[in-house]
Amino acid sequence: MQEKNMTLDIDFFLLGFQLNQQLNDFLFCLLLMVYCGTLGGNILIITLVSTSKNLHTPMYFFISQLSISDILLPTDIVPNMLNFLLNNEGHITFICCMTQFYFFCASEAFECLLLTVMSYDRYVAICNPLRYTSIMTSDRCVILATMCWVLGFSIALIYCVTLSLLMFCRPNIIDHFFCDLVPLVELACSSTYTVELEAYIICFLVLVIPIIIVIISYIKIIVTILRFQSNVSRQKAFSTCSSHLIVVFIFYITLLSVYLFPKGGQTLNLNKFLSLLYTVFTPLINPIIYSLRNKDIKKSLQEMINKWIICNNDIKVYR
Which of 19, 35, 44, 90 has the fewest CB atoms below 10 angstroms from its CB? Predict the structure, then answer.
């Protein structure tokens, strides 16, 4: 019990990127702009999907859920990074570290599951268009999204509890910019067998299986599209899937790269950079991909702007 209390009292020290002051200031400004852009872009998509009747479809409902996740993930990590960069202070308490890891793990698990559901949605839309409305009902979409959230947070809770039961030894220095799994396990001075076993199981459940399902779905989608007689139909079908496929590709490539690269030496900095991509920059890229490549979202945005202009003009006339 005494050892456990000592663990709870531990303060970790995050090394971050170990840059000079000028680069620190540049990174601070960059991250602040990216974070503000991420919040603005994803809140805009959530607002458009919830207010525009044209976007009340399963695909856009899932996009809005992805936007919620894309707000949660950088909010869990970026404010701490900004504080560390601004004050040159990398201390984080054990409780805050576990909390950060919990929300990081939950949002990543949720996104893996949601992207799988979105690939299934595209599969039904392309391969079974006549049954699409009967299969992807609004109630079923809500149930699927809720399951993704519940499974994501439940898996993260189980894993975080197991990780928090480890004994951590000094020096308690984490060579990263947030509390990630690998650096935390490396600091443990008790057996990590259970944590590593859970890592393999969770990886299989929320990473390997979803990737297989996504690949199978898109193989069937591509085969079906190639059977279309009309080039216009092919282009339309590919355009409805291309945004999701780009998001899936960026997410999985950056996520897998972090954990496939060997540790040590120069690769640590590369892993930090890749981690920065999928935790900070990908949540900004997702709304850009869906908004710039999507005519329905552009149309809804234009309608919202027009309503806002008309409303302002009416207020001015009234005054």
Answer: 19
Q: Which residue has the tokens 């590593």?
A: 196
Q: Which is nearest to 10 in space by CA: 93, 97, 101, 96?
A: 93
Long-range pairs for 90-93: beta carbons < 8 A, 24 or more residues apart: 90/13, 90/14, 90/15, 90/16, 91/11, 91/12, 91/13, 91/14, 92/11, 92/12, 92/13, 92/14, 92/179, 93/10, 93/11, 93/12
pLDDT of residue 266: 46
Number of Cβ within 10 Å of residue 33's Cβ equals 11
Q: What is the value of pTM for the model shown?
A: 0.89
d(CA 162, CA 292): 42
Q: Which of 86, 83, 74 is nearest to 26 (CA)?
A: 86
Q: Whole-angstrom Cα distance, residue 213 to residue 6?
A: 44
**Rounded Cα gap, residues 216 and 288, in angstroms:** 26
Calculate the alpha carbon distances from 257 to 156, 196, 267 in Å.
21, 19, 11
